[in-house]
Amino acid sequence: MKVIIIGAGEVGYHIADILSKEKQDVILVDRDEERLNELAETLDVMTLHGSGSSPEVLKRAGLAEADMVIAVTDSDETNMVACLLASTQSRVSFKIARIRNPELDEYSAIFGKDHLNINLCINPEREAVKNALDLIEFPGATEVTDFHEGRIKLIGFPVQNSALTGKTLRQVREIHPDSKMLITSIIRDEMLVEPRGDSVIRENDYFFAVAAAEEAKELLRLFGRKTDPARRVVIMGGGNTGRMLAEALEGKGLDVKLIEKRKDRCRFLAERLDRAVVLHGDGTSQDLLQEENIRDMDVFAAVTNDEEANILGALLAKRLGVKKTLALINRVEYMPLVSRVGIDGVINPRHAAISKILHYVRRGKIVTAAPLHDERVEAFEVVALETSEITSRPVRDIAFPPGTVVGAVIRGDQMMIAGGDTVIRPGDHVIIFTFRSSIPQVEKILMVKLEYFE
């Protein structure tokens, strides 16, 4: 597959990294020549200096032979024009654009197929809000990923002060035989550990577990994590993400306070929001947080465009007594540090953007694909077809690479936690977890006698 990626920022870089490691033919286009030179030293991709909205640049990138165009620059206009050019000057099968402006995003959603022929529009702020709402709904979770239209939840959380510490996973199953959950991955001392029956739960382990949506809170309670519903939320940052999050929380009937530095933006927010209290000030100010009784709040969500400020604000709010802190963080290198320094949850719009893009890139009948934690692990939902090698045989007999786990099988309205004896049938939705390095092997198994395009 030949893929043209326009934009060498965080999302563009990581998509290029993923695809290049899977031996795809990748061309990375950006206007920042210095940035391209830096990435050329670490990525096995072709680079091209120029604007993604230039017909000549796209022609030099090989637009005529490309299978996919992914436009993820910081400019909505550049991304939309790039997709328009791909539609009118080539036969590119899939065009993906990142669009931040809510008005342009709404326009693209309504008219995209007719006017721009964009197959997927990604709004990072909208995805960040969905992420935040999940984390607020499940207070004990550090990460939450939806599968099967939200019916299955993948929960990431650290093991801290749990009564289950020191027990094996087999013992946990014996103590709680009715628990419908499966531990899919363990991160221990920055290393990935494949969970087995004799795996001993240790303090500060980081677990990923899959459960039906209605069982997710019970899973968190099992490990001593908080599950009390939130009622009062403080949002730091009144940009698009903060505004949309405040509107969503108002719709759920929660009490919301929003802190924003810019006075003119505060006026706009006060006019736009119905019941939320808009405060002009700095969310990293101890005096302001104490004046607003932060210790009585359930959640503090820092969603500004400044990651360092988000981390600082969340840490300060935690020290002042708020029950749960969330911080919007894009950079993958920060991810392993979050739970260790005391931040309870990560809002990661880049993960959401990459997840949506991977859905189009992955071969086979992929429904959802999601990078997890520091992106060494990936989870994806696949539809098992009659000709696939994963069907009509027990899971234990499928030749998956080491570390690959079949977490759940959805058959109609029934969700089953998979075991070695589970037999996957045609039409089942299967949720699989594997190391990023094993993706090509897993993909090959899924692709046997399968066609990517219907």
CATH class of the largest domain: Alpha Beta
Low-confidence stretches: 449-454
What's the total helix number?
15
Question: Mean pLDDT, rounded to whole units?
Answer: 87
CATH topology of the largest domain: Rossmann fold
**Distance separating the two termini:** 17 Å
Instruction: Find the structural class using helix and strand composition.
Output: alpha/beta
The helix fraction, in percent, is 25-40%
Radius of gyration using CA atoms only: 22 Å
Largest sheet: 6 strands, parallel
CATH superfamily membership of the largest domain, which one?
Answer: NAD(P)-binding Rossmann-like Domain
Order of strands across the main sheet: 3-2-1-4-5-6
What fraction strand?
25-35%
Number of strands: 22
- In the CATH hierarchy, the architecture of the largest domain is 3-Layer(aba) Sandwich
**Domain unit count:** 4
